Automatic annotation (TrEMBL):
Annotated coiled-coil segments of the chain: none
Keywords: Lyase, Pyridoxal phosphate
Cellular component, GO, one term: cytoplasm
NCBIfam families: PRK07582.1
Organism listed in the record: Mesorhizobium hungaricum
Highest taxon, organism lineage: Bacteria
SUPFAM superfamilies registered for this protein in UniProt: PLP-dependent transferases
Cofactor: pyridoxal 5'-phosphate
Positions of post-translational N6-(pyridoxal phosphate)lysine modification: K196
Protein's name in the database: Cystathionine gamma-lyase
Family of this protein: Belongs to the trans-sulfuration enzymes family.
Single GO term (MF): pyridoxal phosphate binding
Gene3D superfamilies registered for this protein in UniProt: Aspartate Aminotransferase, domain 1 (3.90.1150.10), Type I PLP-dependent aspartate aminotransferase-like (Major domain) (3.40.640.10)
Length: 372
């Protein structure tokens, strides 16, 4: 990048500039239409809402810019993952999934892909490179994993998978393109739930698929058009709005997490803690080279289920909620979602509150746990 070239964040905010005409709106317009004026030849313009929409175009332009690759928007992260699987797999194929990533991905494979004759195996993220990749059409990894925050060496995995003749899909939901660049590390496909930090306001379900492989993107786009797995124009518009402030929000959340994580770890109520930004964490060394930031998720263990619930409910600057990446700090006891974690396991998603105010609220709730 030259000294005068804009940063990714700066360039993102002005993507529409070159296409503006006199009198155009600066923000992306919201086009609510299921059908478009379509006389004559039926190519080269918008025709029907399942095929395309001008608001999608603007949102996908932003996603493509961030990924430095073509991107397609979907109505949720699981819709994006489903599109990649169903567009690229056929009966008899075998895939590899993490044992410790987002559990709904494994449910999709077990309940639906298996019924179509697609076989799958699982392997822990921390030892994902063990065992080889022969025979796998697709290998799917989530790094850092949700909720344990283990890390897979994406570059090493990509090299080994490609030698075995497979494709690597990376779920980059926990990091966003500002925190990690899987395609630059050798991954073939990126999927993400833009419901999380990219939107950032907990009011949209969205996802995307990105790849530099033209055949992959053509297959995924055909699946989206045929299946109707499309985002609504309003959701695409809200996501576009959220992406404009992603850099600012992500930076604040990550910086706050780096401040708060070691303090939580040192608290007497806490039995164990995982955060890639801590020296000594099993993920730290690889995270330091593979990721641009350490993220905003902190996972830790309290003494019991009751302590976890009391901590979350007793913190005045924390929402008891699933999901993560919004401006509001939230936390969840993940055993109630089926994750194989200890009863007192808490996944804490740092939000945009001032860091010292947030820490004071977290400490007060932990102090009550320790004193009980």
């Amino acid at each position: 990048m030259s000294e005068t070239a804009p940063s990714r964040a700066a360039g993102l905010l002005h993507l529409r500039r070159d296409g503006l005409s006199k009198g155009d709106s600066i923000p992306l317009p919201l086009t609510m239409a299921s059908t478009f004026h379509a006389p004559g030849d039926s190519t080269g313009f918008h025709q029907y809402g399942r095929f395309s929409n001008p608001t999608w175009d603007g949102t996908e332009e932003m996603l493509s810019y961030l990924e430095n690759a073509p991107a397609l928007a979907f109505p949720s992260g699981m819709a994006a993952i489903s599109a990649a699987f169903f567009a690229l797999l056929k009966t008899g194929d075998r895939i590899l999934l993490p044992t410790d990533g987002y559990h709904t991905t494994r449910i999709l494979a077990d309940r639906f892909l298996r019924a179509f004759g697609v076989h799958f195996d699982t392997r822990p993220t921390a030892s994902f490179l063990d065992g080889g990749f022969d025979g796998y059409r697709l290998v799917f990894v989530e790094s850092p994993s949700n909720p344990m925050l283990d890390i897979c060496d994406i570059a090493a995995a990509a090299e080994a998978i490609h030698k075995a003749g497979g494709l690597l899909i990376v779920d980059n939901t926990t990091m966003t393109p500002f925190g990690q660049r899987p395609l630059d590390l050798g991954a073939d496909i990126v999927v993400a739930a833009d419901t999380k930090a990219p939107n950032g306001h907990s009011d949209v379900l969205a996802g995307h698929v990105a790849s530099r492989n033209a055949d992959v993107m053509a297959a995924v786009k055909e699946w989206r058009t045929t299946s109707g797995s499309i985002p609504s124009p309003f959701d695409a518009w809200l996501l576009h709005r959220g992406l404009e402030t992603l850099d600012v929000r992500f930076d604040r959340m990550c910086t706050s997490a780096e401040l708060i994580a070691p303090r939580i770890k040192a608290h007497p109520a806490v039995k164990a803690l995982r955060f890639p930004g801590l020296i000594g964490d099993p993920s730290h060394n690889l995270a330091s080279t593979q990721m641009e930031r350490f993220g905003f998720l902190i996972s830790f263990v309290l003494g019991s289920e009751d302590e976890a619930e009391n901590f979350i409910n007793g913190c005045e600057l924390m929402a008891a909620a699933t999901s993560f990446g919004g401006v509001h700090t939230s936390a969840e006891r993940r055993t109630k979602r089926g994750d194989a974690v200890p009863p007192g396991f808490v996944r804490l998603a740092i939000g945009c509150e001032p860091a010292e105010d947030l820490w004071a609220a977290i400490k007060a709730s932990l102090d009550r746990i320790a004193a009980a």
